[in-house]
Design goal:
With about 160 residues, the chain is mostly helical. Helix content is about 70%, strand content about 0%. It has helices at about 20-50, 55-80, 90-95, 110-135, 140-165. The longest helix is centred in the first third of the chain and has 28 residues, at about 20-50. It starts with 20 loop residues before the first helix and ends with a helix.
Length: about 160
């Protein structure tokens, strides 16, 4: 019975018609890394925002970090569906992030502008993932990336609208 718990995850071959699933999974892993980084940054700003627009920003960031958390699961599960391993450690998840850490003591304006920029970055990454997925006949990942791009573009728009002076 104890041997049951000795099973370790490993990559497997899948035959679903996706060419080079490992390449697509690597693209997914990068957006997963940046999505998790944005999730944490959004949650940290949610805790610390102050000022006249506190309630609006606090509420918006709560909605966004909830959606980002759900997205991390979708992205990781898609990697697994491609037969690959999702990142296995915190350093794997956060170590390769292209997004920058939060600046020290940002104003509410700086928080909102920073998040808008990060969402734009992720939307751009999703568009690249759509193209990569198409090159490898992976319509499922392309659909996932399309939905994620739409989320990030809308989030960036809402944040930019708040940040206007």
């Amino acid at each position: 019975m104890a041997d049951i718990l000795e099973t370790t995850p490993e990559a497997t071959t899948v035959k679903t018609g996706v060419k080079s699933p490992k390449v697509v999974a690597e693209g997914l892993a990068q957006v997963l890394t940046d999505t998790y980084t944005l999730l944490l940054k959004t949650h940290i700003y949610h805790w610390n925002v102050e000022g006249p627009l506190f309630y609006s920003i606090h509420t918006l960031t709560e909605e966004q970090y909830g959606a980002l958390f759900e997205a991390t699961d979708e992205l990781a599960e898609r990697i697994r569906a491609l037969g690959q391993l999702a990142p296995m450690s915190v350093s794997d998840v956060l170590g390769g992030a292209k997004l920058k850490d939060a600046p020290k003591s940002p104003s509410a304006h700086d928080m909102v502008a920073d998040l808008a920029s990060d969402h734009e970055h992720l939307a751009s990454q999703m568009h690249k993932l759509i193209k990569l997925s198409g090159e490898h006949d992976d319509d499922v990942t392309a659909d996932l990336a399309t939905a994620r791009a739409a989320f990030h573009e809308k989030a960036a728009w809402m944040l930019r609208a708040i940040a206007k002076s």
